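Crash report, auto-generated. Payload:
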Amino acid sequence: MNEYRYDNQTVQGFILSAIFWGVVGIVIGLLISIQLWAPAANLAPWLTYGRLRPVHTNGLAFGLGVGAIFGLFYYIVMRLCRRPLVFPRLARLHLWLFNAIIAAAAVSLLAGKTQSLEYAELEWPLDVAIVVIWVMFAVNVFATVIKRKEEQMYVSLWYVLATVVAVAILYVVNNASVPAGLWKSYHAYAGVNSANVQWWYGHNAVGFIFTTPILAMFYYFLPKTTGLPIYSHRLSIVSFWSLIFAYLWTGAHHLVYTPLPDWIQTLAIVFTLFLIAPSWGSVVNGYYTVGADWSKMRTNYLTKFFVLGITFYGLQTVQGPTQALRVVSQLIHFTDWVPGHVHMGTMGWVTMTICASIYYVIPRIHGTEIYSEKIANAHFWLVLVGQLLFSITMWITGIQQGALWKVQNADGSLKYSFMDGLVKNYPYWHTRTLAGIVFAVGMLLFVYNVLKTIQKGKALQASPPSPAPAAA
Amino acid sequence: MAGDIYRKPVSFALMAAVTVLVGSIVTMAYPMFRAEMHEKLEKLRAFTPLELAGRDVYQREGCMGCHTQTVRPLRSEVLRYGDYSKAGEFYFDRPFLWGSKRTGPDLAREGGKRPDAWHARHYADPQAVTPRSNMPRYAFLAQARLDPSEARAHYRVLASLSPKGQWTATDADFAALSQKTEMDALIAYTQWLGHAVQRRQAAGGVDLALANPLGDSPRAVARGAKVFEENCAVCHGAEGHGETQIAPNLMDDTFLGVKGDMPDGAYFALVTGGSDAKAALGRPGLPDGGMTAFGGQLSNDDIWAVISWIRAQQAHERKEAPALEQTEHLPGGKH
Ligand code: HEM
Ligand code: HEM
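Recovered output after restart:
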């Protein structure tokens, strides 16, 4: 009845998969947060902290993050090109392969099969499979964009295309390795060089998984939900190009004070400071867009998700460059400050924006309204409180930890043993678990709300057809 | 023209590719061709098959989620861990294992810091050694035997990536692995860490004439007891009687393997400089060393205080000794 129907099912498949892996990742996040203060919670060799930590990060970055990116990008691309996907069955196959890969990834990480490269832990057979699904995705996206029925490509499409291009380059280069068995390989690069390639990749995994795709969603769904056009097209252009230009120079800010040659570190720090500008370009654009009518914050329940999301993006992109400064890095690098930074971004910006986009898309697909705005509001406040509690406690304990590591006695010896510093983390780590629970309850409300909306949509379809609202 | 690009997806994508490649080439690709990215320290040697198997275990267990392997050139860090990390130490590391989070201490200088038996006990049950540690137990590693053929396959791949002559294991070395466990391998790897760098020098050298400025004052002894309990008891036992294979008895009249005690100055040098101070003291001690260097970690006053405590304890034991000997010779007594 609707030429988008099949593709919409694929979109919804990705969204539900992302939600499923998100729940898995969050449950594991809770478990590892407990293990940090209760080592008895390392229940079995394959459930020890060291093996679970990458399951948490991969599950959320690639299961929740990339799953949502695939689904929502298909959705955005179809709307902005005013046509269904060129290869609908390819997209469906993509969905199944995606889930098979994430499942295999989780099992292989639990079994300890890892390259030990952060955000590139998966061993080479899975890397190959991941390249295959990104190619499938790229083919569909490019074909659809080329055959589009709308002349101009909107900002979100720029971010979509840039994401695909950059991920391809980053992923292939950093995962180059020499296999030493079916589930074991060694990095093609050694020592300092290995570190440099990995963090060039690692920082841009943040850049092109947790930043550009989320901006694509932001630029599309914010005007859609509020009905307000993006404030400045010129600002969008300038921030887009300068963002994707600068990001790739900055990887070495993760390697400050390591044996990596100083000039690479310094160059990275300089570009990192510059990165504030394009990041805030989008923040300002977002604020001024909503600034045209602030009452939307009250009248449209989704506006606050996007506004808070971009606010945390703004804070994140000021905090990040600060962390790169040598004086600051000295103090906070290696401490719990960094998970504080990470979760403000992942919980406050990434997850917030993804959830809001899903709230927008799911009812549209079914031609209905969200099941409950009340529940969505409760979800909002819970994840907000959970995230703030998480980040703030980690910042406090991170600074304390960094300071205790440094304190010296009058005769130049160290004042505190390593354990003196560690035990001071415990109260904060308890609080972090509590924060995680609050956040997780919020996310469960979200899941419930989405599932109920789908149920409502299905019921509607089963009942005699009424004229459905246009899917655009 | 500039506006056109937003209508042409392929040109747009190419332009985006060029944009992201500029920084990538300058900061990632170009450095690969510079010698500073491929340095190797004179003393650095490749892994033995056992050490490599241990490194594989380290990767598999995700130890790098809690431990870093890079000491930054900061004063406090050099004091705590030892000399800062050099580029040339990581020549054989594929990938690098520097880590990004220090939930546990840095391990770049762990090799030679502690005896094998200490690690075996700590890996099996960290809380038994450091009660408030949050490190998971890895007792299961002691049950897992190594697979020589797998170890050989891994070793061969790495060897093929370095110039000839650096990876020198023989068939016999691989065969010997069948007698070893993953625990043995992990410990061997732990002891490999940092071997290419000169360990901490005995701070200030050795001055046997140094007198303990704190003497035997009760306050110093009480403080020393606390320092001992927190830093030394793990290896030397709660009363300083030593632990088999881990650390010697401090109460007997043998010092570093030779009968006959040495003056306080020697104690100070040994506690400050660790086993590395032995050469200057002219005594052999244990072949593998394993006494931690506390210079920089403990204040000089704490070190003198713990020596005050050891001296007080020794005097106390000498007083009790005759009584002890009698009980040991009672019929049915342990011996
Ligand atoms: C201008 C923007 C940003 C800059 C310059 C920046 C900078 C940094 C720096 C310097 C670190 C290393 C901290 C350390 O270990 O000492 C870091 C870590 C991290 N940042 Fe950001 N950040 C930015 C935005 C973001 C955003 C938007 C996210 C989204 C979630 C994010 C996620 C992360 C993550 C996941 C890590 C941890 C990496 C790891 O160690 O595994 N950052 N960031
Ligand atoms: C219930 C919610 C969550 C809890 C309790 C939790 C807990 C944790 C813990 C304990 C760590 C390890 C920190 C450390 O090394 O000391 C961690 C790391 C991380 N988490 Fe979460 N997390 C949660 C939600 C999320 C979400 C929603 C995302 C992403 C969308 C995420 C992404 C990450 C990333 C990327 C890291 C690695 C950071 C680094 O390497 O520095 N987490 N999390």
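Post-recovery validation: Residues 218-328 of chain B form a domain with the Cytochrome Bc1 Complex; Chain D, domain 2 fold (CATH 1.10.760.10).
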